Amino acid sequence: MTTSGKEVAHKYSMDIPHVSAVEVPLVVANKDKAIGMLGGKEKIAKIINSVDKSYGSNTNSGLSNGEPHLELRLRDDPFHHPIQSSLSVNEKVLLKVSIPKKSLPKDYYTDPSKYTVRDLISRSNENGSPHYKAHPVGIIDKTFSFKAMADFQVSTKNNDLVQDFNRSVLNAQSYSDLEKYIGKHNNFTSLSDYKDPSTYANEDHQLPPPPIFSPIRFPFDYKYQKNPLTSIIKDEESGEMKVISKKGTLKLHTIIVDFHSTSVPSSAAPELIEIYEKLKSSKDLQEHSFDATLLRCIEWLRSVFDIKPIWLRKQLEDIAHPDLKRVIKQALPYVSYIFKSGPWRFCNVKFGVSPKLDRSFWEFQSEYFRIPGLHFNSNPKYSPRRLVPKTIKEGKGNENLTVSEYLLFTGDKLPLTVTYQVGDIIDPDIVNIIERSQADLGDHFYRDMPDFQDGWINRQTMETIRRIIRYKLSRIVNEERIDHNKVTQLINKEFNENDDDNDVSDIKSQDKIEGDVSDENEGDGDDEVEEHNDQDAMDIDPPEDYENDVISQIESSEIPTTKSLRGLVGLIKQDSLNFE
Question: Where in the cell is it found (predicted)?
Fold first, then answer.
């Protein structure tokens, strides 16, 4: 149709029937079979006629329980889990498209699936004048679609018990059929029968399947992608497929020393010395490259280790220039070694320095405390004070080596670390304890030889320091007032070798137990609370025969169930596991 030389669209009357549509996720070759899979014509008509447009306005809105919906059954099985339909009430126009036979491709009737309606229309229009006709024949106001996932399925055709249940119960024609079935399975009619596990052992899995396996209706795209840094290879010996990393782990070559070792390293590992010499001799290092930054960090660390020979890594990261912070972990093995156990655990020690040979190194001993359920805020609301650690002696330039007070134990503020060097503690009570002990005990303040647990300091002084820190940390964490009378009691409390100090049970000092430290995580066991915050490991350990003591007390009260409780001990107790 043209008007004044312009082509306009055809106009059609919309006084046409309203119809409903059912979209199935199938290629329908047999319409009768497809209708049967939906429950038959009568059921489809009943559902369509019972649905009002007020049921929903969102496209593909799922129907809830109680609302009429169609079910698509993919196989004939009473225990089959059908796919539930979704209803859309958005209106659509149903078009009838007529294409002359002479415009159809020659192979259309032999393989019609090769062509879409759009392809056929395009072909019929190749001559310039349209050979197809299209006009509306109906308005679709209800659309039932099956876009939900099919639930997990169980085939019951080889399940004798289920087939018998289907014939005798689900398809029972009379009460006598049910009576025969119940009589044949009379072992399930009494409650006492279920007390015998052998009655319902179900070794052959002959029970009917549950009505639903998964409540998830629509698929969710988790966007799983292959890790670009891994590759799958076949093990030549076992033939199994293994996932390996394509990115080699940067080996730090940190030298790790046991507390009982009789000597300490005087220089870095040979591999690091070779790398360092290459970096120094290289003349084409870019200013902000990793290698150039690493070289600058090594030189800076040597200068600060000359001032203070033993450092905690957190303090070094706090005082380092922002450009150097990212390479401190890689640079430390060039200038220091670490103890994997003992009173200087978690500390980086300058090469050639042995804190076990001189009692003046008591100041650098580290104490680590576990805090259950504590998450530090790394961004305080206000800027903290910066202080020169007490273990740094006065000297030119040393006044610039200031650390945040949140890395030191102040006794009244929540810290950002749980590891402290004894000489850097600025809590007045701790400082007074140390000064008073040194004045009262003189040379007896020190041990003749450093102890694995307490280092150079005498046991009573160290236990008093730990008690005070544990108590104050527990109060600060719980936002409770510190009772100075309690602090005085802890200071004056007589030391007892077997004292468990049960007054403070929610925070304990870590037992310094020897353990293997791999190159893969070397230096990571420092004073970061997130790395040690293990709720199960926080509580004070009970006595070795704790459960027997409890049961013995129950037996003394003549409770008849004691025997059953003793049998449960093996079920609820989890022994410690040593992982390699």
Answer: Nucleus
